[in-house]
Every structure is written in C-alpha cells, then in structure tokens.
Design a protein that fits this description.
Helices cover 69% and strands 0% of the residues. The protein is an all-alpha fold and 404 residues long. It has one domain. α3 packs across α8.
C-alpha cells in the first residue's frame, strides 16, 4: 500500500484552497450572485425552461440546468438536517431562551440558494483544477497554472488589460472595452468552461479514441451549449491528425474522418431528439426574424469594434499564457522535456479555430458586442492554455538546445 506523505497532503490542500478561493470570487463577481444575495428573485440555474416553451424555441442548454437543480435539491435535503425551527419538531417543550429568529430566517431564505450557487460554480469549474494537476507534476507549477486559469475566469486584474489597450491605442483608435473581462456568466457558460477543460484533457490523452466516447462527449457538449460539440470535434480531429504517434498520414486522416462522422451523427441525433420533444408537447417555434435582423444590422454597424474586441479578448490571455508558460519552463530543470505534448497544442489550436468559425456564425444570431463577454469566456480559457503550452514548449526547447 502506497503511503501518502504529509507534505503531499498539505500541497493538495493548498491547491484546493486556492481553487475554492477563486471559485467563490467567480460566483460572487461574475455569476449573478447579487441576485441571490439580495433575494430580488428566485434565482435558478438557467434563464430558460427545460424544454423551451417560454422562449418558443427548443432548448439545447440542459446540462447546467439538470446539474444545478440536482445540486440545489441535494442542498435542500442537507439543510433539512441542520438546526432550525425547533418549535416545529416533535417533542418540543419550549425554552426560556428562544432564538431571535435570525438563524431560522437564513434557513428559510438564502441558505439553500447561496449554498447551491457556490457549490455549482465550484463543481462546474473543478475540471480546471484537474487540468492543472494533470498537466504538471510539480506543486509550484500546478499552483501557477491554476492561478492563471482561475484569475482569468474570475476576471483579470486591470493592469494587463490597460497595458494592452495603451499599446494598441498607439497605432489606432482602439476600443477600451473593459466590460469584456467582467461580464456576468450564465450557469451554462460556467459549465462550458469546465467542459472545455475536460475536452482538452481528453483530446490530449494518448489512449485510443473510441467511437462511443466521442459520441457521448459530443452529446454532453451539445447539451451544454449548442456549438460546444463542434469545438470538441475540431480539437480532437486536430489532435489526431498532427499526432505522429498515431501512425502514418493515411491512418490519421481516417481517424479524423471517423471522429468527424461520429460527432456529426451524435449532434444530429441530439438536436433531433430535443426538437422532437419540443414539438411533441405541442409547442410552436417563434423565429423572431425581426429581432435577429436587428442583431445582424447592429453587428455590421459595429463590425470594426467587434473584431477589435475579439482580438482584445484572445490576445490578452494568450500573452499572459505565453509569459506564464515561460515561467513554468524555467521552474523545471534545463534538460527536462515539457509535459505538454504537440498533440495537446494541436487540440488547442483546433478548438480555437472552431471558435473563430462560431464567431462568424454569431454575426447572424447574436447581439454582438454585448454577448461577447460570456460567449467567448471558454475561448479565452483556451487562449490562455494555448499560450502556456507554447511558452513552455518553446522555451524548454531553447534551454535543451543550449544544454546540448
């Protein structure tokens, strides 16, 4: 039996504390926590109903809803076990020292909502902690990567943002869109962030890719946010095609075709099922063509600003990631190979490329630039991870060359 060293337990505990700290900050600063805290409304884990009746169109974003409601139900059961309302319990005989009611009011009001909200954010973002642990073996390297990723999700410090804006403004009238880095995230946006981290881990693994695994992940990704299955398929296809360990070029190309085919079928089956359930319940779709026409017109009016905003949102985390990757490389010994393989970098590039395609399609049905803050939150995490991977690998290669 392997004996766990006390030092390892302490390091694991510190990583968990750092993760929990930034997860709570994300919950309070970027996920509508003010609605829960002020009890202005009955906060839920979705802004739409499960099937889609309220918005008159089928809803594919159900993973976060089911996950959130399950967490809330579990918290509600757990909260029923703690001390509250003794006068409502059997055998209660009264007391000369009654409580002032504060505890009971908390138990009746914000206890379940606050606890479920914080737990949901922590569980949704947990894959980011797992990714940091898997990518690096050293405690300090894991801590650096975890901090960079979680700070990016909670909201970057204004200093690097201001530095980028100042540099860009030297050459043109650059939009100073600070709001892009502090926008509120819906529950499904948070689930997408965790899902992206899991997809990166899967694409980077060297084990054989099974069709049922591809189908399952594509279905879950599509039911998180509509386009996330496409992002996964693009990342996995790129990882297979550029992985020299898979085999010769022809076998890699066949692997890409198989992944793309399975993912496409899984997406169609998922969409058809959701649409079928929607129409079986005698619902009708309201396409709101006038509304979307307004989106398109506004997007093209602000075309240059939107493109600049996209560059800002991806360049800043990419630059921070490159510096972070260089630091992580320096923390390793000079002759040590970087733990991040080319397969991982290819997957990240494939996912980033698919997000650019999503960005183009978004011009036809999204309210840019107001939607960009949350729509591109997963892309910003991918840009950071790609910067870390490139920075670490490039500098590690230069250091190995200098040693030899």
């Amino acid at each position: 039996m392997t004996q766990i060293k006390p030092a390892d337990l302490i390091k694991a505990a510190l990583l968990i504390v750092v993760f929990a700290t930034f997860a709570m900050q994300t919950a309070m600063l970027r996920s509508f926590f003010y609605t829960v805290a002020s009890q202005e409304s009955e906060w839920s884990f979705h802004d739409r109903d499960l099937i889609g009746q309220e918005r008159a169109r089928p809803n594919l974003r159900v993973v976060a809803m089911v996950m959130g409601e399950t967490i809330q139900a579990t918290v509600r059961v757990a909260s029923s076990l703690v001390f509250a309302h003794p006068e409502q319990t059997p055998l209660y005989q009264g007391t000369p020292w009654p409580d002032d009611g504060t505890r009971d009011s908390i138990a009746d009001g914000p206890l379940v909502l606050w606890s479920a909200h914080l737990l949901f954010v922590g569980i949704a973002l947990l894959p980011v902690l797992i990714l940091a642990i898997v990518w690096y073996r050293g405690f300090w390297q894991r801590l650096v990567l975890l901090t960079l990723a979680m700070v990016g999700i909670a909201g970057w410090h204004p200093a690097p943002i201001s530095l980028f804006f100042s540099a860009a403004s030297l050459f043109t009238d650059w939009p100073l869109s600070y709001y892009l880095f502090i926008g509120n995230l819906q529950a499904y946006d948070l689930a997408a962030l965790g899902g992206v981290a899991l997809m990166v881990l899967y694409c980077a693994r060297g084990a054989p890719v099974r069709s049922w695994q591809v189908a399952t992940i594509t279905i879950m990704a599509t039911l998180t946010i509509e386009y996330l299955g496409v992002v996964f398929a693009a990342g996995l296809s790129a990882a297979i095609f550029f992985d020299s360990d898979v085999g010769h070029r022809r076998s890699r190309l066949l692997g890409v075709v198989r992944v793309a085919g399975v993912a496409f079928v899984a997406f169609l089956v998922t969409a058809a099922t959701v649409f079928g359930i929607f129409f079986m319940m005698e619902n009708t779709v309201q396409w709101q063509s006038t509304r979307y026409a307004g989106f398109v017109e506004n997007n093209f009016l602000w075309f240059r600003t939107i493109i600049a905003n996209m560059i800002s949102m991806l360049s800043i985390p990419m630059g921070i990631g490159l510096l972070g990757g260089a630091v992580l490389s320096l923390m390793a010994s000079a002759g040590e190979r970087p733990p991040i393989r080319m397969r991982t970098i290819a997957a990240l590039i494939g996912m980033m490329g698919s997000y650019l395609a999503v960005f183009a399609v978004g011009f036809l049905n999204l309210a840019y630039p107001s939607e960009m803050s949350r729509q591109f939150a997963p892309a910003m995490l991918l840009a950071l991870l790609l910067g870390v991977a490139l920075g670490d690998r490039v500098l590690s290669g230069l250091r190995r060359t200098a040693v030899t």
